[in-house]
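Project channel, design review

CF: Before we commit to the Penicillium antarcticum constructs, I'd like one complete example in the thread so the newer folks can see what an input/output pair looks like. Taking adenosine deaminase.
RD: sounds good, go ahead.
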Amino acid sequence: MHLPSILGIATLSLSGISTALAIEGEPNINAPLVQQHLRNREKLIALEKTHRQDHIFRQSLSPTAKRADEIVEAIRQDEIDHYWRVAGTLNEEERFAGEVFPLARPYISNTTLWRVIKRMPKGALLHAHLSAMLPYEKIVEIIINTEGMVISASQSLDTADAKQNATITFSHNNDTLSTTQSKIDASDYIPKTEIPVKDAATSFEGGEAGFIEFIRSKTTIPPEESIRHELGVDEIWRRFQACFGPADTMLQYEPVVRKFYQKLFEDLTSDGINWVEIRSGGSSGKLVHDGNEDIDPDLDAWWHVLVEEIEKFKATELGKNFLGARIIWSDARIKNRASITKSMKIALQRKQNFPELFSGYDLVAQEDLGRPLSDLAPELIWFRQQTEALNLTIPYFFHAGETLGDGNSTDLNLFDAVLFNTRRIGHSFSLYKHPNLIHQVIEQSVMVEVCPISNEVLRLNEDVLHHPLPAMIAHGIPTAISNDDPVILGQDVAGLSYDFYEAIQAFDNIGLAGLTERQLKAVSSSRVELSTPGCLPLAHAYAHDLCILPGNEGLKEASQRKCGGRRGSPVEPRNYGLLPED
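CF: and here is what came back for adenosine deaminase:
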């Protein structure tokens, strides 16, 4: 049969139907079936929310807390509509809420939501690695002004390629240097020649600012590299791990280490963090005392300094509400069995000598290329047996599931972590793929330390909108937001504000109340007893009225602050209809 005939039959048939049926009325929002659908919709949404991690907390919010949550949500939505939703032009790329962090970062500080997040108490930071916590320009400034600090390079730094390929090392030298060289970027520089850092910085191309920028290039991942997701996970991890070499050599000389800790605690406290648990230990803890050049063989020396600096900071005005810091002893999972066992023995000794300082044990570095937890079962079971025999409490806080895999060894680390009774899991990016394991994590109250910006920069998700955090929260998995390695990965600050901002701005179901509940759980998970006098202000700030500023005057201020408008221009302050006008 020819196509025109088929079309003709179809036309005749449709024409016959149209004359036989009478169409009555118009769609009506008030129709009983429509209203029934809308009621069923609300019930279904409400039922799902009962499974959320923050459901019970939201039911207990005070009127002040609910109002704060509403105000912040209004600010967020207003800025999505009027600040972030900007079409691209010939001179500027398109801007949108949730775009990749390195591109969004320059715009974030113009927003009212950012100012609210900066003021918010953060409570506990549970997942951060020591040598990647304080901006390197601050450490370099300390080093430049510390007598006897020297720098050396594996080759001359006279070309761009040489700067990129060279290895640099910081150390302390008491002696008068015999060399007359003062320019580390001179073409006649002799490799591994030590030059006073102050001289190297002053004579560097571009002066001290150029020197600091060079150090940043060796210790951070620049935005143009962090967005190259097409190059894959292994490539960015090679770049990432290379940053730790020079960074670790910065933190060995005692006067530098002491000033480093004071600056770090100042920055954490200024961002509303009152408690921090730091991954360190296995490859750290090498201390050169004031006026010396050699590392102290006493393995307690580094930790004595840390304890002293914690107490020193707590005695200051800024540190009066700082509750302290603990160390999660961390070994590189790529080490051989003998090295890991040796480090475990050192960890046990340190726990005996500093029972209040060390809170747990972890295995770190790239999971995909390191030993899976199942491979280290003999060592991990032996370690647990030793802690029991010595009457020590050293729970596991394993990195696990930091992968795109589904069923590979990194993904399956999650099962081992749960079987080893891990107290918390770092990243747990692939957990949402395992329904039975999710149930066990919830039943065992295992908290996930979520690091949104880290996961994005290390190419697990293209941007925050693709992060599994909302799925974890929706399933009821306990989560806390952390920052991992902030000064290497682009936040370039010690605090949590950027990761907090990314989470609240990207996801509609989190809000101020959701952030608050995350960190209240973090405070509890950090094993700080909320009943102790020192913790009452922190517990009050979280559990009662979500203070943005003392006395809640910050609620109104936050609702009326100016935010950046299109292309960064200011817009008129808004009341958002939630507070009475003056």
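RD: helpful, thanks. The radius of gyration is 28 Å.
CF: The first strand starts at residue 123 and ends at 129.
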